[in-house]
Amino acid sequence: MTLQTTPDRPRIDAREKVLGRALYAADIALDGLLHAITVPATIAKGRVTAIDTALAIAEPGVVRVYTHEDFADDIAVTPATLGGNQPGLQPMTDTMIRFRGQPVALVVAETLEAACEAARLVRVSYRVEPFTATMDELGSEAEPYEITAEVGDAHAALQAAEVTVDAVYAQAQNHHNPLELISTTAYWGAGKLTILEGTQNTSAIKFGTAGALGFAPSTVDAISPYVGGAFGQKTVLQLQSALVSRAAVLLGRPVKLVMPRAQLFHTAAYRPRSNHRIQLGASRDGRLVATIYESDQQNARYDHFYGTSHNEMVSHLYGIANWLGRERLIRVDTSPPGYMRAPHEHPASFAFESAIDELAYLLEMDPVVLRLVNDTDRDPITGKPYSSRTLARCLERGAELFGWNRRNPAPRTMTAEDGTLIGWGVAAGAYKGSMCPAIARLRIQANGVTRLFITGHEMGQGMRSAIAAELMEVLPVNLDKLDIQMGDTRAAAQHLTAGSWGTGSAVPATRAVAEKMKAALTELVGELREGDDVHRKLMSTKRPMLEVEIEQLGLDQTQAALDRMRQGAPATAGPIYDELVAFSWIAHFVEVRVDPTTMRVRVPRVVSVADCGRVMNRRTATSQVQGGVVWGIGAALQEAAEVDPRYGFIQNNDLADYVVPVNADIGDITVELLDIPDLQLNASGVKGVGEVAMVGASAAVANAVFHATGKRIRHLPIRIEDLL
Ligand code: MOS
């Protein structure tokens, strides 16, 4: 069997998307649709004492105004579980206000305009309580440290080390701003509740809403045909999901709510603030002997968001024999943080890969060489081999493409003719190689139509294109009439599509179901030859269609994982498996140009070399890496929520003030993908790329800023005022 790399090829849904025919959940037109909007709390902590809805209800076109009095006995609060179905709280089931912006009322009207106007007229009275908006303030609550990684004796090794680094790095609060806002549309009919929601976890919507409303899960379906940016924000029920569904059931009409962007900052998942103290010990010749990694992460007072740890990725990056990782949560009165692209790996890589750069300067050693010296073929934490270890190749190839050997290592020595300071920085990254169970049902019809019903969500990353490529490789069908149904609980049980495991789970499942179909067809019509039209072959048997189904377990998984997925629960494996440890790898090389007077930082050029296993589609994978680098540049130089500690309010809650990179901020991003199938992880050799793309990118920018200016900035974002 030879696996092919799909060359630069348009995504199969490109035409539909460009023509506006690819319908996102909130685009789907429904007869009799009602529009809903929530009323956000204007205090950060306390209780609702009264809600006067009279004026709002009097507004023409308003159908209902719901408050906690309507929903308290009507929407169950099911226990929040990590990565499970529920957000940390279900609003409008009691009078408690836990954060500014928490929904306190839901207005439903015939038009969006009427709903918005009426929402403005809802009068809410509160009893205000003291609160703490950020982890810097008195009243924040630090939990005890938890040890998340421990190997050898890091304290002793650090004590004995010839060279040490000890520094604290800070990550700002960052917010997702997907083009597709979060939304829920729900309707009730023929004994079924149907929910249209842009989500990466339709099963969570199905089972979570069923649990909240007290329905049998079999009576709820959730559909998420396309998602316009998910990246972790859309992993669980949103605060509005159950509210909108309940309203639709009570009113007997479809109800749609699209969360306005300003509210999104207060109600949807975001990357919380975190501080990272890194202590490194090394020998004079650059061998790392010890790390102590301690991190603090801001969290909501009541929330469940732990996620994976900061240590998980960085502890597997180099061969460091003594490692101690400790982490804790700092609780404040804020909205629930959550997953955001490379949730812990991005801030951890900024901290750790900055510290590595600092060590390189202390040792007077090239930072690429320092990383190569500490390469390893055994995972230091578990002692197991890696399924593939290509970090050195990423670094070496990146250095070559970038022209790294022309770098003068001393800070402030490389300048352009006009005096502009030039800085070159490097950083490395990794992201876990995970897998989920998947179900795939393939139906081939004599009339040329092929339907594939499969586990996984198309979130813009190009999963349908990757699936189609794999299907065509095993069993060429009529591509023009291929319909891939995913992100739909009616099509197949759905996993949470996150953690960069989507393509690596769906592509092998596609291979398996295509091979099963090939065998079934062969049984009917004899050996298939290259160029055979499978639809004609089927027609020759006088059958209108043929259907086969497979269930796939990820590496080391048992049937129990599949059962969990069928119940809408998380069911992921990796990166630590019985026999191996699996990661995707990346190295980023960044050039910054800094104006010596204004200290404005520009990023004209980035080279990123990644190993994501076999490349399923060069165009979509390259695009994912470029997107990840853009996020890295945004986090490094621009993005931060400005929380007003007096009100607990995010002041820059729109795209005018929450600054993200625009085209003019981004120069050339050259991406090379090693394209080495990782056949130990799955039969298709595919690993994730969506998140590894961002890991290390911000560190490479910060390291380049140091090289350009001689200023080591240990917090993100790095702004002009830090460099003056
Ligand atoms: Mo991702 S942050 O695991 O959706």
Notes on the protein architecture:
This protein is of the alpha+beta class. It folds into 3 domains: 193 residues, Aldehyde oxidase/xanthine dehydrogenase, a/b hammerhead (Aldehyde Oxidoreductase, domain 3, Alpha-Beta Complex), CATH 3.90.1170.50; 306 residues, Aldehyde Oxidoreductase, domain 4 (2-Layer Sandwich), CATH 3.30.365; 132 residues, Aldehyde oxidase/xanthine dehydrogenase, molybdopterin binding domain (Aldehyde Oxidoreductase, domain 4, 2-Layer Sandwich). Helix content is 26%, strand content 25%. The chain is built from 19 helices and 28 strands. The strands form 7 sheets. Strands 3-5-1-14-11-12-13 form a 7-stranded mixed beta sheet, sandwiched between helices. Strand 17, helix 9 and strand 18 form a beta-alpha-beta unit. Helix 10 packs parallel to helix 18, helix 13 runs parallel beside helix 14 and helix 17 crosses helix 18. The mean pLDDT is 95. The structure holds dioxothiomolybdenum(VI) ion. Dioxothiomolybdenum(VI) ion binds next to loops. Keywords: Molybdenum, Oxidoreductase. One of its GO terms (molecular function) is iron ion binding. Belongs to the xanthine dehydrogenase family. It holds the Pfam family MoCoBD_1.
